[in-house]
Design a protein that fits this description.
The chain has 294 residues and is α/β, with parallel strands linked by helices. It has a single domain, classed as UDP-N-acetylmuramoyl-L-alanine:D-glutamate ligase (3-Layer(aba) Sandwich). Helix 3 packs parallel to helix 4 and helix 5 crosses helix 6. It starts with a strand and ends with a helix. The structure holds alpha-D-ribofuranose.
Length: 294
């Protein structure tokens, strides 16, 4: 199976802070690191490091050319990343002393992707290929519809969630990945509902899609038809949770691409994510297959 991630490619500015900033507060950070990220590019990195054949598509400015070198160094095919006369997407990330984060995004190239570029890219893909999406770029609905017309499978991580997600052709998706906050919003249930209840709501609302619900320390849940699985977390020292979800998705999909069942794929995805949270940064923190599969 070939994977095409059409997604965000960001320059991450990571500020290490004692706690996440409150309104009106000014805080000194103990470190500042410029690194490579973007949910889309992180997904591509995880897929490639897991050993899958992956193409990354998106748009960057000249300030982001180093991101291409990095993606290529991990085996990602970047021929569908366009450059333009503007800024690369940026993420201002606060990481607190417990490893939790808060992120502000600037779209840049991610929001300058055109329908023509999408059509041109998708022309090289079809049946047997999977499109991987998140919610950080424009024309996502066009991507879903055109990919399905071409016989591709489509996996979307509904992150970050915003109400415009309901305008997307979500019922056409084959795999939906959400965390507990996104899931509650998508399933229109209270955030404090039991995870199993949120999962059931999503399975009922999107019967054509396999649902993967990731809930931090609560592990991950899978639902499709009558099939249900729960994978607990694998304990690790938490340094920085950035890109843990992206790692989970990349390793899950790469495992499915190798013919593993969802339950096994969840285990390997969880193991990979447990390594990611023990390191700082986004793309750079994602482990190689040898670290995960041994
Ligand atoms: O999921 C983590 C990513 O979210 C970061 O790398 C940042 O760029 C944002 O897209």
């Amino acid at each position: 199976m070939r994977f095409l991630t059409y997604g965000s490619t960001n320059i991450d500015l990571i500020f290490t802070v004692d706690h996440i900033l409150a309104a009106g507060e000014t805080l000194q950070s103990t470190s500042l690191t410029k690194s490579a990220g973007g949910k889309g590019a992180n997904q591509s990195t995880a897929l490639a490091k897991a050993g899958a054949a992956v193409f990354h598509a998106g748009k960057i400015g000249s300030d982001g050319l180093f991101l291409l070198d990095l993606l290529q160094s991990w085996g990602v095919d970047t021929r569908y990343v366009r450059t333009y006369d503007g800024a690369t997407g940026q993420a201002l990330i606060q990481v607190d002393r417990t490893g939790q984060n808060a992120i502000i995004l600037y779209g840049g190239g991610n929001k300058a992707i055109t329908v023509d570029e999408i059509e041109e890219t998708l022309a090289s893909f079809g049946e047997g290929d999977m499109l991987v999406l998140q919610n950080e770029i424009v024309h996502t609905d066009t991507l879903i519809r055109r990919a399905k017309e071409r016989g591709m499978q489509v996996c979307m991580n509904i992150a970050p969630f915003d109400p415009s997600v309901f305008d997307l052709s979500l019922s056409m998706l084959d795999i939906i990945v959400v965390n507990e906050i996104e899931a509650a919003a998508l399933g229109r249930v209270a955030q404090k509902s039991a995870y199993e209840e949120i999962l059931e709501q999503l399975v009922a609302a999107y019967p054509g899609a396999q649902i993967l619900l990731t809930v931090g320390a609560g592990g991950s849940y899978y639902g499709f038809g009558n099939e249900r699985h729960h994978q607990p977390i694998i304990e690790a020292e938490v340094v920085d949770t950035t890109a843990a979800g992206d790692t989970f998705i990349g390793y899950y999909l790469a495992s499915i691409g190798r013919g593993l069942e969802p339950k096994e794929a969840m285990y390997w995805a969880t193991k990979a994510a447990s390594i990611t949270v023990s390191r700082s940064g986004a793309m750079a923190s994602i482990p190689y297959a040898s670290e995960v599969f041994g």
